[in-house]
From TrEMBL:
Keywords: Heme, Iron, Metal-binding, Monooxygenase, Oxidoreductase. This is Cytochrome P450. Its cofactor is heme. Heme binds at residue 442. The keyword Oxidoreductase applies. InterPro entries: Cyt_P450 (IPR001128), Cyt_P450_CS (IPR017972), Cyt_P450_E_grp-I (IPR002401), Cyt_P450_sf (IPR036396). It comes from Laccaria amethystina LaAM-08-1. The keyword Iron applies. Belongs to the cytochrome P450 family. Transmembrane segments: none annotated. GO terms for molecular function: heme binding; iron ion binding; monooxygenase activity; oxidoreductase activity, acting on paired donors, with incorporation or reduction of molecular oxygen. Gene3D superfamilies: Cytochrome P450.
Length: 498
Protein backbone atom coordinates (compact mmCIF):
# COMPACT_ATOMS: atom_id res chain seq x y z
CA UNK A 1 0.00 0.00 0.00
CA UNK A 2 1.23 3.52 -0.77
CA UNK A 3 1.63 5.64 2.33
CA UNK A 4 0.93 9.38 2.52
CA UNK A 5 4.63 10.34 2.39
CA UNK A 6 5.10 8.45 -0.91
CA UNK A 7 2.04 10.10 -2.45
CA UNK A 8 3.22 13.57 -1.37
CA UNK A 9 6.73 12.88 -2.70
CA UNK A 10 5.32 11.64 -6.04
CA UNK A 11 3.09 14.71 -6.31
CA UNK A 12 6.04 16.95 -5.51
CA UNK A 13 8.16 15.31 -8.23
CA UNK A 14 5.28 15.54 -10.74
CA UNK A 15 4.73 19.26 -10.05
CA UNK A 16 8.49 19.92 -10.23
CA UNK A 17 8.70 18.12 -13.62
CA UNK A 18 5.75 20.06 -15.03
CA UNK A 19 7.26 23.36 -13.85
CA UNK A 20 10.71 22.56 -15.22
CA UNK A 21 9.28 21.47 -18.58
CA UNK A 22 7.13 24.62 -18.65
CA UNK A 23 10.20 26.81 -18.06
CA UNK A 24 12.05 24.93 -20.86
CA UNK A 25 9.17 25.50 -23.25
CA UNK A 26 8.91 29.19 -22.34
CA UNK A 27 12.59 29.43 -23.27
CA UNK A 28 11.80 27.66 -26.57
CA UNK A 29 8.99 30.09 -27.36
CA UNK A 30 10.95 33.25 -26.65
CA UNK A 31 14.30 33.11 -28.42
CA UNK A 32 15.67 36.25 -30.08
CA UNK A 33 16.76 36.43 -33.72
CA UNK A 34 13.49 37.04 -35.57
CA UNK A 35 13.16 33.54 -37.03
CA UNK A 36 9.46 32.56 -37.05
CA UNK A 37 8.19 29.41 -35.35
CA UNK A 38 5.93 26.82 -36.91
CA UNK A 39 2.59 26.21 -35.20
CA UNK A 40 0.17 28.28 -33.17
CA UNK A 41 1.62 30.96 -30.87
CA UNK A 42 2.00 30.54 -27.13
CA UNK A 43 2.98 27.65 -24.91
CA UNK A 44 0.14 25.37 -25.98
CA UNK A 45 0.90 26.07 -29.65
CA UNK A 46 4.49 25.06 -28.95
CA UNK A 47 3.51 21.87 -27.14
CA UNK A 48 0.95 20.72 -29.69
CA UNK A 49 3.37 21.17 -32.63
CA UNK A 50 6.19 19.52 -30.65
CA UNK A 51 3.94 16.52 -30.00
CA UNK A 52 3.04 16.37 -33.69
CA UNK A 53 6.75 16.48 -34.56
CA UNK A 54 7.39 13.56 -32.21
CA UNK A 55 5.00 11.26 -34.06
CA UNK A 56 4.65 12.80 -37.53
CA UNK A 57 7.75 14.78 -38.52
CA UNK A 58 6.88 14.55 -42.23
CA UNK A 59 3.65 16.56 -41.99
CA UNK A 60 5.32 19.18 -39.77
CA UNK A 61 8.16 19.66 -42.26
CA UNK A 62 5.81 19.79 -45.25
CA UNK A 63 3.76 22.46 -43.49
CA UNK A 64 6.91 24.46 -42.69
CA UNK A 65 8.13 24.20 -46.27
CA UNK A 66 4.90 25.47 -47.78
CA UNK A 67 4.35 28.16 -45.14
CA UNK A 68 7.84 29.68 -45.10
CA UNK A 69 8.84 28.99 -48.75
CA UNK A 70 12.53 28.35 -48.09
CA UNK A 71 12.98 30.98 -45.36
CA UNK A 72 14.44 29.78 -42.02
CA UNK A 73 11.89 28.78 -39.38
CA UNK A 74 11.96 26.86 -36.13
CA UNK A 75 10.30 23.56 -35.39
CA UNK A 76 9.26 23.13 -31.78
CA UNK A 77 10.43 19.83 -30.31
CA UNK A 78 10.14 18.51 -26.78
CA UNK A 79 13.88 19.07 -26.29
CA UNK A 80 13.89 22.64 -27.64
CA UNK A 81 13.40 24.39 -30.99
CA UNK A 82 15.35 23.36 -34.10
CA UNK A 83 16.17 26.09 -36.61
CA UNK A 84 15.37 24.29 -39.86
CA UNK A 85 17.18 25.70 -42.87
CA UNK A 86 16.49 25.16 -46.56
CA UNK A 87 19.15 23.66 -48.90
CA UNK A 88 20.56 27.08 -49.79
CA UNK A 89 21.99 27.34 -46.25
CA UNK A 90 23.75 23.99 -46.56
CA UNK A 91 27.14 25.38 -47.55
CA UNK A 92 27.06 27.84 -44.64
CA UNK A 93 26.49 25.02 -42.12
CA UNK A 94 28.74 22.48 -43.82
CA UNK A 95 31.76 24.73 -44.05
CA UNK A 96 31.48 26.35 -40.59
CA UNK A 97 33.99 25.34 -37.93
CA UNK A 98 32.92 23.72 -34.69
CA UNK A 99 33.37 27.02 -32.88
CA UNK A 100 30.51 28.42 -34.97
CA UNK A 101 28.23 25.45 -35.67
CA UNK A 102 29.29 22.61 -33.38
CA UNK A 103 28.71 18.99 -34.44
CA UNK A 104 29.96 17.00 -31.42
CA UNK A 105 27.60 18.93 -29.14
CA UNK A 106 24.67 18.11 -31.41
CA UNK A 107 25.59 14.39 -31.47
CA UNK A 108 26.09 14.43 -27.72
CA UNK A 109 22.62 15.95 -27.25
CA UNK A 110 20.95 13.62 -29.75
CA UNK A 111 22.43 10.51 -28.15
CA UNK A 112 22.80 11.94 -24.64
CA UNK A 113 26.35 10.55 -24.65
CA UNK A 114 27.25 11.46 -21.04
CA UNK A 115 24.53 9.02 -19.94
CA UNK A 116 24.29 6.44 -22.71
CA UNK A 117 28.10 6.07 -23.14
CA UNK A 118 30.32 8.45 -21.14
CA UNK A 119 31.53 12.05 -21.07
CA UNK A 120 34.91 11.24 -22.63
CA UNK A 121 33.63 10.19 -26.08
CA UNK A 122 33.84 13.62 -27.61
CA UNK A 123 36.64 15.16 -25.54
CA UNK A 124 39.28 13.12 -27.35
CA UNK A 125 37.36 11.30 -30.06
CA UNK A 126 40.27 9.11 -31.17
CA UNK A 127 37.82 6.35 -32.13
CA UNK A 128 36.71 8.61 -34.99
CA UNK A 129 40.31 9.16 -36.13
CA UNK A 130 40.89 5.40 -36.03
CA UNK A 131 37.87 4.82 -38.30
CA UNK A 132 39.01 7.53 -40.72
CA UNK A 133 42.57 6.20 -40.94
CA UNK A 134 43.45 2.60 -39.94
CA UNK A 135 40.00 1.13 -40.48
CA UNK A 136 39.50 2.76 -43.88
CA UNK A 137 42.95 1.53 -44.95
CA UNK A 138 42.06 -2.01 -43.81
CA UNK A 139 38.74 -2.25 -45.66
CA UNK A 140 40.06 -4.33 -48.57
CA UNK A 141 41.55 -6.82 -46.13
CA UNK A 142 38.18 -7.07 -44.33
CA UNK A 143 36.34 -8.25 -47.46
CA UNK A 144 37.06 -12.01 -47.05
CA UNK A 145 36.22 -11.90 -43.35
CA UNK A 146 32.97 -10.01 -43.83
CA UNK A 147 32.01 -12.45 -46.61
CA UNK A 148 32.93 -15.48 -44.51
CA UNK A 149 30.90 -14.22 -41.52
CA UNK A 150 27.96 -13.29 -43.78
CA UNK A 151 27.87 -16.83 -45.16
CA UNK A 152 28.13 -18.47 -41.73
CA UNK A 153 25.66 -16.12 -40.03
CA UNK A 154 23.07 -16.33 -42.81
CA UNK A 155 23.37 -20.14 -43.04
CA UNK A 156 22.70 -20.35 -39.31
CA UNK A 157 19.91 -17.78 -39.34
CA UNK A 158 18.00 -18.72 -42.51
CA UNK A 159 17.08 -22.37 -42.05
CA UNK A 160 14.16 -24.03 -43.82
CA UNK A 161 11.95 -26.11 -41.57
CA UNK A 162 10.88 -29.70 -42.36
CA UNK A 163 7.49 -28.76 -43.73
CA UNK A 164 8.29 -25.54 -45.56
CA UNK A 165 10.62 -24.53 -48.34
CA UNK A 166 10.52 -20.88 -47.36
CA UNK A 167 11.93 -18.85 -44.49
CA UNK A 168 9.77 -16.20 -42.89
CA UNK A 169 11.92 -13.50 -41.22
CA UNK A 170 11.12 -10.48 -39.06
CA UNK A 171 13.36 -8.35 -41.26
CA UNK A 172 14.53 -5.49 -39.08
CA UNK A 173 15.33 -7.68 -36.09
CA UNK A 174 17.09 -10.26 -38.26
CA UNK A 175 19.15 -7.64 -40.08
CA UNK A 176 20.14 -5.96 -36.81
CA UNK A 177 21.45 -9.26 -35.42
CA UNK A 178 23.26 -10.11 -38.64
CA UNK A 179 24.90 -6.69 -38.85
CA UNK A 180 25.98 -6.91 -35.19
CA UNK A 181 27.62 -10.28 -35.75
CA UNK A 182 29.16 -9.54 -39.14
CA UNK A 183 30.56 -6.11 -38.17
CA UNK A 184 31.98 -7.47 -34.94
CA UNK A 185 33.92 -10.10 -36.86
CA UNK A 186 36.39 -7.32 -37.65
CA UNK A 187 35.73 -5.12 -34.62
CA UNK A 188 36.37 -7.66 -31.85
CA UNK A 189 37.05 -10.91 -33.74
CA UNK A 190 35.56 -14.38 -34.12
CA UNK A 191 35.24 -15.25 -30.41
CA UNK A 192 32.98 -12.45 -29.24
CA UNK A 193 31.21 -11.88 -32.57
CA UNK A 194 29.61 -15.32 -32.33
CA UNK A 195 28.69 -15.06 -28.66
CA UNK A 196 24.90 -14.94 -28.77
CA UNK A 197 24.61 -13.29 -25.36
CA UNK A 198 26.99 -10.51 -26.31
CA UNK A 199 25.13 -9.99 -29.60
CA UNK A 200 21.82 -9.84 -27.78
CA UNK A 201 23.19 -7.26 -25.32
CA UNK A 202 24.81 -5.07 -27.97
CA UNK A 203 21.72 -5.16 -30.21
CA UNK A 204 19.50 -4.18 -27.27
CA UNK A 205 21.87 -1.32 -26.53
CA UNK A 206 21.85 -0.12 -30.17
CA UNK A 207 18.05 -0.33 -30.39
CA UNK A 208 17.37 1.27 -27.02
CA UNK A 209 19.85 4.15 -27.15
CA UNK A 210 17.96 6.52 -29.52
CA UNK A 211 14.74 6.03 -27.52
CA UNK A 212 16.42 6.37 -24.14
CA UNK A 213 18.28 9.47 -25.39
CA UNK A 214 15.03 11.07 -26.58
CA UNK A 215 13.40 10.63 -23.17
CA UNK A 216 16.50 11.97 -21.40
CA UNK A 217 16.62 15.03 -23.64
CA UNK A 218 12.95 15.78 -22.92
CA UNK A 219 13.55 15.65 -19.17
CA UNK A 220 14.77 18.50 -16.99
CA UNK A 221 18.55 18.21 -16.34
CA UNK A 222 18.08 17.40 -12.68
CA UNK A 223 16.07 14.27 -13.50
CA UNK A 224 18.23 12.97 -16.32
CA UNK A 225 20.37 10.53 -14.28
CA UNK A 226 17.18 9.01 -12.90
CA UNK A 227 15.54 8.77 -16.34
CA UNK A 228 18.66 7.07 -17.72
CA UNK A 229 18.84 4.65 -14.85
CA UNK A 230 15.17 3.61 -15.15
CA UNK A 231 15.10 3.37 -18.96
CA UNK A 232 18.43 1.61 -19.36
CA UNK A 233 17.22 -1.03 -16.91
CA UNK A 234 13.99 -1.53 -18.82
CA UNK A 235 15.19 -1.13 -22.43
CA UNK A 236 18.87 -2.09 -22.22
CA UNK A 237 21.87 0.15 -21.62
CA UNK A 238 25.66 -0.04 -21.76
CA UNK A 239 26.08 -2.26 -18.69
CA UNK A 240 25.11 -5.56 -20.36
CA UNK A 241 27.38 -5.32 -23.45
CA UNK A 242 30.26 -3.96 -21.31
CA UNK A 243 30.10 -7.15 -19.23
CA UNK A 244 31.36 -8.98 -22.33
CA UNK A 245 33.61 -6.32 -23.85
CA UNK A 246 35.67 -5.64 -20.70
CA UNK A 247 36.75 -9.28 -20.05
CA UNK A 248 37.41 -9.66 -23.79
CA UNK A 249 39.69 -6.59 -23.68
CA UNK A 250 41.50 -7.77 -20.53
CA UNK A 251 42.35 -11.08 -22.21
CA UNK A 252 43.19 -9.42 -25.52
CA UNK A 253 45.52 -6.90 -23.86
CA UNK A 254 47.42 -9.69 -22.07
CA UNK A 255 47.71 -11.92 -25.14
CA UNK A 256 48.71 -9.20 -27.61
CA UNK A 257 52.00 -8.71 -25.72
CA UNK A 258 53.11 -12.07 -27.12
CA UNK A 259 51.91 -11.58 -30.70
CA UNK A 260 54.42 -10.10 -33.16
CA UNK A 261 52.03 -9.71 -36.06
CA UNK A 262 49.00 -8.01 -34.57
CA UNK A 263 45.58 -8.71 -36.10
CA UNK A 264 43.92 -5.91 -38.07
CA UNK A 265 40.93 -5.81 -35.74
CA UNK A 266 39.34 -2.44 -35.02
CA UNK A 267 40.11 -3.23 -31.36
CA UNK A 268 43.82 -3.42 -32.14
CA UNK A 269 43.79 -0.08 -33.99
CA UNK A 270 41.95 1.49 -31.08
CA UNK A 271 44.46 0.20 -28.54
CA UNK A 272 47.36 1.51 -30.64
CA UNK A 273 45.81 5.00 -30.79
CA UNK A 274 44.69 5.20 -27.18
CA UNK A 275 46.36 7.89 -25.07
CA UNK A 276 48.49 6.54 -22.16
CA UNK A 277 45.86 7.47 -19.58
CA UNK A 278 43.12 5.44 -21.31
CA UNK A 279 41.52 2.74 -19.16
CA UNK A 280 40.09 -0.62 -20.17
CA UNK A 281 36.62 0.73 -19.40
CA UNK A 282 37.34 3.75 -21.62
CA UNK A 283 38.42 1.49 -24.50
CA UNK A 284 35.37 -0.71 -23.98
CA UNK A 285 32.98 2.24 -24.16
CA UNK A 286 34.61 3.41 -27.39
CA UNK A 287 34.15 -0.07 -28.89
CA UNK A 288 30.52 0.18 -27.86
CA UNK A 289 30.30 3.60 -29.52
CA UNK A 290 31.60 2.12 -32.80
CA UNK A 291 29.11 -0.74 -32.43
CA UNK A 292 26.28 1.73 -32.05
CA UNK A 293 27.38 3.74 -35.11
CA UNK A 294 27.54 0.59 -37.16
CA UNK A 295 24.51 -1.43 -36.02
CA UNK A 296 21.80 1.20 -35.75
CA UNK A 297 22.39 2.73 -39.18
CA UNK A 298 23.35 -0.26 -41.31
CA UNK A 299 20.45 -2.42 -40.09
CA UNK A 300 17.98 0.28 -41.18
CA UNK A 301 19.60 0.53 -44.62
CA UNK A 302 19.67 -3.24 -45.28
CA UNK A 303 16.06 -3.62 -44.12
CA UNK A 304 14.80 -0.80 -46.36
CA UNK A 305 16.80 -2.18 -49.30
CA UNK A 306 15.29 -5.67 -48.87
CA UNK A 307 11.74 -4.26 -48.73
CA UNK A 308 12.38 -2.41 -52.00
CA UNK A 309 14.00 -5.44 -53.66
CA UNK A 310 10.96 -7.52 -52.69
CA UNK A 311 8.84 -5.13 -54.79
CA UNK A 312 10.99 -5.42 -57.95
CA UNK A 313 9.85 -7.49 -60.92
CA UNK A 314 11.82 -10.80 -61.10
CA UNK A 315 13.67 -9.74 -64.27
CA UNK A 316 15.07 -6.68 -62.46
CA UNK A 317 16.29 -8.82 -59.56
CA UNK A 318 17.86 -11.17 -62.09
CA UNK A 319 19.66 -8.23 -63.72
CA UNK A 320 21.22 -7.40 -60.33
CA UNK A 321 22.28 -11.04 -59.91
CA UNK A 322 23.75 -11.18 -63.40
CA UNK A 323 25.82 -8.07 -62.69
CA UNK A 324 27.09 -9.56 -59.42
CA UNK A 325 27.99 -12.86 -61.06
CA UNK A 326 29.77 -11.17 -63.96
CA UNK A 327 31.74 -9.00 -61.53
CA UNK A 328 32.77 -12.03 -59.47
CA UNK A 329 33.85 -13.91 -62.60
CA UNK A 330 35.78 -11.03 -64.14
CA UNK A 331 37.54 -10.15 -60.89
CA UNK A 332 38.18 -13.73 -59.76
CA UNK A 333 35.93 -13.62 -56.68
CA UNK A 334 34.91 -11.26 -53.88
CA UNK A 335 37.56 -8.57 -54.25
CA UNK A 336 37.60 -4.80 -54.00
CA UNK A 337 37.42 -4.70 -57.82
CA UNK A 338 34.35 -6.95 -57.85
CA UNK A 339 32.58 -4.87 -55.22
CA UNK A 340 33.20 -1.76 -57.33
CA UNK A 341 31.40 -3.49 -60.18
CA UNK A 342 28.28 -4.26 -58.07
CA UNK A 343 26.83 -1.01 -59.44
CA UNK A 344 23.18 -2.03 -59.13
CA UNK A 345 23.47 -3.12 -55.50
CA UNK A 346 25.39 0.08 -54.80
CA UNK A 347 22.70 2.12 -56.57
CA UNK A 348 19.94 0.42 -54.56
CA UNK A 349 21.65 1.32 -51.28
CA UNK A 350 22.24 4.90 -52.39
CA UNK A 351 18.62 5.29 -53.51
CA UNK A 352 17.39 3.95 -50.17
CA UNK A 353 19.53 6.65 -48.54
CA UNK A 354 18.03 9.32 -50.76
CA UNK A 355 14.44 8.15 -50.50
CA UNK A 356 14.29 7.11 -46.83
CA UNK A 357 17.57 7.97 -45.06
CA UNK A 358 17.70 7.94 -41.29
CA UNK A 359 16.24 11.30 -40.23
CA UNK A 360 14.28 14.25 -41.59
CA UNK A 361 17.13 16.66 -41.05
CA UNK A 362 20.84 16.64 -41.86
CA UNK A 363 23.94 18.45 -40.59
CA UNK A 364 22.53 18.91 -37.09
CA UNK A 365 24.72 21.43 -35.27
CA UNK A 366 24.58 23.63 -32.16
CA UNK A 367 25.24 27.35 -32.79
CA UNK A 368 27.99 28.40 -30.37
CA UNK A 369 27.88 32.06 -31.28
CA UNK A 370 24.96 34.02 -32.66
CA UNK A 371 24.88 33.39 -36.43
CA UNK A 372 23.55 35.90 -38.92
CA UNK A 373 21.47 34.09 -41.54
CA UNK A 374 21.91 36.94 -43.99
CA UNK A 375 18.25 37.96 -44.27
CA UNK A 376 17.95 40.05 -41.13
CA UNK A 377 17.39 36.96 -38.95
CA UNK A 378 19.88 35.01 -36.85
CA UNK A 379 20.36 31.81 -34.84
CA UNK A 380 21.00 32.71 -31.20
CA UNK A 381 23.86 30.94 -29.36
CA UNK A 382 22.99 27.56 -27.85
CA UNK A 383 20.24 26.71 -30.36
CA UNK A 384 20.13 23.81 -32.81
CA UNK A 385 20.28 24.21 -36.59
CA UNK A 386 19.77 21.57 -39.27
CA UNK A 387 19.12 21.28 -43.00
CA UNK A 388 15.80 20.01 -44.37
CA UNK A 389 17.08 16.71 -45.87
CA UNK A 390 14.03 15.89 -47.96
CA UNK A 391 14.12 19.31 -49.62
CA UNK A 392 17.59 18.28 -50.83
CA UNK A 393 16.76 14.65 -51.68
CA UNK A 394 13.46 15.35 -53.43
CA UNK A 395 14.61 18.27 -55.59
CA UNK A 396 13.13 17.47 -59.04
CA UNK A 397 15.85 19.51 -60.79
CA UNK A 398 18.44 17.07 -59.45
CA UNK A 399 16.38 13.89 -59.14
CA UNK A 400 13.73 13.48 -61.87
CA UNK A 401 10.58 11.80 -60.48
CA UNK A 402 11.87 12.19 -56.95
CA UNK A 403 8.72 10.57 -55.46
CA UNK A 404 9.66 7.26 -57.10
CA UNK A 405 12.07 5.00 -55.25
CA UNK A 406 14.03 3.78 -58.27
CA UNK A 407 16.73 1.37 -57.13
CA UNK A 408 18.51 1.73 -60.48
CA UNK A 409 18.49 5.54 -60.46
CA UNK A 410 22.23 5.88 -59.80
CA UNK A 411 23.44 2.87 -61.80
CA UNK A 412 21.64 4.35 -64.83
CA UNK A 413 23.35 7.73 -64.28
CA UNK A 414 26.71 6.02 -63.86
CA UNK A 415 26.20 4.12 -67.10
CA UNK A 416 25.09 7.25 -68.96
CA UNK A 417 28.00 9.32 -67.66
CA UNK A 418 30.54 6.44 -67.85
CA UNK A 419 31.70 7.60 -64.44
CA UNK A 420 32.27 5.52 -61.33
CA UNK A 421 33.69 8.19 -59.07
CA UNK A 422 30.43 10.11 -58.67
CA UNK A 423 27.10 8.62 -57.52
CA UNK A 424 28.62 5.74 -55.53
CA UNK A 425 26.85 4.79 -52.27
CA UNK A 426 29.50 6.33 -49.99
CA UNK A 427 30.09 9.41 -52.15
CA UNK A 428 29.00 12.63 -50.50
CA UNK A 429 27.85 15.64 -52.46
CA UNK A 430 25.63 18.68 -51.95
CA UNK A 431 22.60 16.71 -53.17
CA UNK A 432 23.15 13.62 -51.03
CA UNK A 433 23.17 13.92 -47.24
CA UNK A 434 22.48 10.52 -45.56
CA UNK A 435 26.10 10.44 -44.36
CA UNK A 436 26.17 14.14 -43.46
CA UNK A 437 28.81 16.37 -45.06
CA UNK A 438 31.96 18.30 -44.34
CA UNK A 439 34.61 17.50 -41.77
CA UNK A 440 32.18 15.47 -39.65
CA UNK A 441 30.74 13.35 -42.46
CA UNK A 442 30.24 9.72 -41.43
CA UNK A 443 33.59 8.16 -40.58
CA UNK A 444 32.31 4.62 -41.19
CA UNK A 445 30.66 5.06 -44.58
CA UNK A 446 33.28 3.18 -46.61
CA UNK A 447 33.12 0.32 -44.13
CA UNK A 448 29.31 0.36 -44.34
CA UNK A 449 29.38 0.37 -48.17
CA UNK A 450 31.73 -2.64 -48.24
CA UNK A 451 29.74 -4.61 -45.66
CA UNK A 452 26.25 -3.84 -46.98
CA UNK A 453 27.20 -4.59 -50.58
CA UNK A 454 28.57 -7.98 -49.56
CA UNK A 455 25.53 -8.81 -47.41
CA UNK A 456 22.91 -7.76 -49.97
CA UNK A 457 24.76 -9.39 -52.90
CA UNK A 458 25.23 -12.65 -51.00
CA UNK A 459 21.57 -12.72 -49.98
CA UNK A 460 20.40 -12.12 -53.54
CA UNK A 461 22.59 -14.91 -54.90
CA UNK A 462 21.27 -17.36 -52.30
CA UNK A 463 17.62 -16.34 -51.87
CA UNK A 464 14.57 -14.94 -53.60
CA UNK A 465 13.12 -12.16 -51.47
CA UNK A 466 9.36 -11.57 -51.45
CA UNK A 467 6.59 -9.93 -49.44
CA UNK A 468 4.51 -12.25 -47.22
CA UNK A 469 1.51 -13.89 -48.99
CA UNK A 470 -1.33 -11.39 -49.43
CA UNK A 471 0.84 -8.27 -48.96
CA UNK A 472 0.73 -5.90 -51.93
CA UNK A 473 2.85 -3.06 -50.63
CA UNK A 474 5.82 -2.64 -48.36
CA UNK A 475 5.16 -1.88 -44.69
CA UNK A 476 5.00 1.73 -43.57
CA UNK A 477 7.95 3.17 -41.68
CA UNK A 478 7.70 4.27 -38.10
CA UNK A 479 8.42 7.95 -37.58
CA UNK A 480 9.58 8.95 -34.14
CA UNK A 481 11.11 12.26 -33.10
CA UNK A 482 12.33 12.99 -36.62
CA UNK A 483 13.83 9.51 -37.15
CA UNK A 484 12.66 7.09 -39.86
CA UNK A 485 12.71 3.43 -38.84
CA UNK A 486 11.36 0.39 -40.70
CA UNK A 487 8.42 -1.35 -39.03
CA UNK A 488 10.02 -3.85 -36.62
CA UNK A 489 7.01 -6.16 -36.89
CA UNK A 490 7.22 -6.51 -40.68
CA UNK A 491 8.26 -9.81 -42.23
CA UNK A 492 9.72 -10.90 -45.56
CA UNK A 493 9.88 -14.33 -47.14
CA UNK A 494 13.19 -15.83 -48.28
CA UNK A 495 13.13 -18.78 -50.68
CA UNK A 496 16.47 -20.57 -51.12
CA UNK A 497 17.48 -20.58 -54.80
CA UNK A 498 18.40 -23.90 -56.35
C1 LIG B 1 24.42 3.16 -43.78
C2 LIG B 1 25.20 3.33 -42.74
C3 LIG B 1 25.49 4.65 -42.06
C4 LIG B 1 24.87 5.86 -42.14
C5 LIG B 1 23.65 6.23 -42.97
C6 LIG B 1 25.58 6.79 -41.28
C7 LIG B 1 25.25 8.12 -41.10
C8 LIG B 1 25.99 9.02 -40.36
C9 LIG B 1 25.67 10.43 -40.21
C10 LIG B 1 24.46 11.12 -40.79
C11 LIG B 1 26.64 10.99 -39.44
C12 LIG B 1 26.72 12.48 -38.99
C13 LIG B 1 27.44 13.30 -40.04
C14 LIG B 1 27.35 14.80 -39.82
O1 LIG B 1 27.03 15.26 -38.72
O2 LIG B 1 27.62 15.58 -40.77
C15 LIG B 1 27.57 9.94 -39.11
C16 LIG B 1 28.68 10.12 -38.34
C17 LIG B 1 29.49 9.08 -37.90
N1 LIG B 1 29.38 7.76 -38.25
FE1 LIG B 1 28.06 6.95 -39.55
N2 LIG B 1 26.62 6.11 -40.70
C18 LIG B 1 26.61 4.81 -41.16
C19 LIG B 1 27.48 3.81 -40.82
C20 LIG B 1 28.50 3.93 -39.92
C21 LIG B 1 29.38 2.87 -39.51
C22 LIG B 1 29.34 1.44 -40.05
C23 LIG B 1 30.25 3.39 -38.58
C24 LIG B 1 31.37 2.72 -37.85
C25 LIG B 1 31.97 1.61 -38.24
C26 LIG B 1 29.93 4.81 -38.44
C27 LIG B 1 30.60 5.70 -37.63
C28 LIG B 1 30.35 7.06 -37.59
C29 LIG B 1 31.13 7.98 -36.77
C30 LIG B 1 32.29 7.62 -35.86
C31 LIG B 1 30.60 9.26 -36.99
C32 LIG B 1 31.05 10.59 -36.35
C33 LIG B 1 31.92 11.37 -37.30
C34 LIG B 1 32.38 12.72 -36.73
O3 LIG B 1 31.72 13.26 -35.85
O4 LIG B 1 33.44 13.23 -37.16
N3 LIG B 1 28.86 5.09 -39.26
N4 LIG B 1 27.16 8.75 -39.68
Amino acid sequence: MLNLATVVAALFVAVAVVLLVYVRILHGTSYPGGVPRLGKPGVWGYISTALRWTIDAESVILEGRSKFCGRPYTIPTLSGPIFLLSPEYQEMVRSANDDIFNEPMAVSEDLQLPYTLDVHQLQNPYQITVLRTDVNRAITSYIPEILDESILAMDETFKVSKDSRVIDIPVFDTMTHLIARISNRVIVGTGLCRNERFLHAVVRFAEATPLTAAFISWSPSILRPLVYSVLSNILGGKKAPLKYIIPFLNTYLKEREFIDEKPNLVTEFLIKSAPPEETVLGLAVRLLNINFGSIHTSSIFTTQTLFEIALLPPEDVDSIRTEIQEALESEGGWTKGALLKFRKVDSALREVGRFYGLVYFALGRVALIGCDLGDGTSVPPGFRVAIDTKAVHFNPDVYPNPEVCDLFRFSKIRKAESSDSKHGFATIDAHYLPFGAGRHACAGRFFAAMELKIMVAHMLLRYDVSLPPGAISRPKNIIFNGAIVPDPKAHLILTPRR
